[in-house]
Amino acid sequence: MKRLVTIALALTLALCASTVFAGALEEIQKRGKLRVGMEPGYMPFELVNQKGEIIGFDVDMAKRMAAAMEVELELVSTAWDGIIPALLTDKFDIIMSGMTLTQQRNMSINFAEPYIVIGQTLLVAKQLEGTITSYKDLNDAKYKIGSKLGTTGEQAAKRMIPNATYISYETEQEGVLELVNGKIDAFVYDLPYNAIAIGQRGDDKMYHVDTPFTYEPLAWAVRKGDHDFLNWLNHFLFQVKNDGTYDKIYHKWFVDGSWQKELQ
């Protein structure tokens, strides 16, 4: 009898779990809308143009994703330090915001397969050119370095350049501006952003040490346990990477550069 009760309880729990995690895909279809959370300040993944529209690599991928689901797309602008809590409290269905897959984050959310791999690089004050050629050269108390609050750039700076004086910034733009204005010696951040920043700002105030010194896979994040949604996302990624869609979007945002005219 005890065994039958245990089996019945297990079946009930399994049924409840399947009901809860029938989850995002079913809700998206019922609602007719895919809600995507992102912080639009990370070029070229997501940013705001002159018209106040959110554009970028992740945005174009989200548009393609919504089209594949045959639903509308809603972009939910969210501060970076609150983006995981917002996902967990159902403010949106998925994070598509250049998020690095880390073991710490994976404790509270699930990730699909990585859609791109990047790494941390350095923007360095121009007067240090020839002196600073690697992140290791900055590991001295006489140098001030910065990155963005709550990012893998901040983690890498603290972990790999521990002897330098570290300053945290709310936004990437603030950190780069502080470098340009001579307040810090180097800014630690993701390769794609730094490459665009040096192109926009020019090389009269800073230079780019563009060899990544970390390995960082970026991936889309969903609530834990939603295996159906993860399965769909992984198959979607496989499809777009093999039918030319991914390459077309990648070229637009990482190679062409004409999108920068929308910011002027």
Task: Report what the structure shows.
The chain has 264 residues and is an alpha/beta fold. The chain folds into two domains: 163 residues, Periplasmic binding protein-like II (D-Maltodextrin-Binding Protein, domain 2), CATH 3.40.190; 95 residues, Periplasmic binding protein-like II (D-Maltodextrin-Binding Protein, domain 2), CATH 3.40.190. 39% of the residues lie in helices and 21% in strands. The protein has nine helices and 14 strands. A five-stranded mixed β-sheet has the order 10-9-11-8-12, with helices on both faces. It has a three-stranded parallel β-sheet with strand order 4-1-5. The N terminus is likely disordered.
SSE arrangement:
Layout (H helix, E strand, L loop, with lengths): L1 H19 L2 H9 L1 E6 L8 E2 L5 E2 L1 H13 L2 E6 L5 H6 L5 E2 L13 E3 L4 E3 L1 E6 L18 E5 L3 H9 L4 E5 L2 H9 L5 E5 H11 L4 E4 L6 E3 L2 E3 L3 H16 L2 H12 L8
Parallel strand pairs: 1-4, 1-5, 9-10, 9-11
Antiparallel strand pairs: 2-3, 6-14, 7-13, 8-11, 8-12
